[in-house]
């Protein structure tokens, strides 16, 4: 289904509940420009749930999610959306190279790109180890490499900085900086608000049961405190 719109990515009237707990209720979000967006909210507020709804791992009660004017079906997600999830999606008995070759084959990606990403993300030293022998930080870098292989229009990164040593954080920060000049949309969830300030163009806040897109001059941490740590009046959600 095609939707006439000027946006690249759009969520319209999204509603979803889990075990009768409302997570999203008529939530809306419109992203008109490529770039890096931070997704912020307290633990358990529904950030990972949003990524799972976008990628059709969960189905909303109502609402639509579209990319370039086309509603995201499972086939469209496979072709146009990449998702860097947590390490539970990795197979412990396979090596990093096994994972990369499998994803490359599924998406018709040349093996040369595996070598390129391995160098960029500095996974070469452990690419031939089984996942069971990798550290948390090494698994994170492998997950990011897997998500980057297809060069998708929309890239979702769920807590990509978790478990990373300072050198790895710099690698991921430089990578996200490069996305600012690409034609892709990258949405990054993270509890590391200082790092989000460094790499994001705008911030998406999970507020009540909706989403609010904001450009925050005073920084993510200040805005986070205003929204989640202090009493407040109900906010108007921005599309």
TrEMBL record:
PROSITE patterns registered for this protein in UniProt: ABC_TRANSPORTER_1, ABC_TRANSPORTER_2
Domain ABC transporter residue range list: 9-233
Record keywords: ATP-binding, Nucleotide-binding, Transport
Pfam families named in the record: ABC_tran
A GO molecular-function descriptor: ATP binding
Name used for this protein in its record: ATP-binding cassette domain-containing protein
